[in-house]
Amino acid sequence: MAANMRNPSGRRGNPWSLAIWSFAGGLLLLPLVAMQFTDEMNWTASDFAVFGAMLAVACGAYEFAARMSGSVAYRAGAGLAIVAGFVLVWVDLAVGIIEETTHPANAMFAGVLAVGVLGALIARFRPQGMARALVATAIAQTLAGAIGLIFFRGEGMNHGAALTVLTGLLVAMWLVSAWLFRRSARTTP
After folding, report:
1. Which residues of the chain have pLDDT under 70?
2. More exposed terminus of the chain, fewer Cβ within 10 Å: N or C?
3. Do 180 and 147 form a contact (C-beta atoms < 8 A)?
């Protein structure tokens, strides 16, 4: 079921690991560099810790996914789903999708992520099941965005256009990821 990839050194795993982790390290350093040039960027140690933990979880999740299949479509689908989840959490923690980050309605967006994670676990990370889980995640994202637009209009990031763009972007990412997993399911024996 899960094909193991070997990189040129003969070890199992993802040949892109070093690049992915290096990119994540670079992203973690960006706010530090920006803080040297502007007073508008003012991160605390806890901000760096949370962002670092998010990057570590995202990179670790991709490492896990890369070991599940050697299919390029599977890996691309997993990578896109992880990026979508990362963006959702990052925006919610940074500015709050609805009002401030502490607004209780933001829990809807944690529920979107929970749909994806639970769906992946139920699917046992098999491509066909992952495709279904990500379609369900796209539906949950659409519902959360619609509820935000209907009941919390004009609050926080939710001034109509911003929430619509964010919702549309994330739904598109979830659906393209589902398509990639479906493609992987068709090519994987």
Report:
1. 1-14, 153-159, 188-189
2. C
3. no
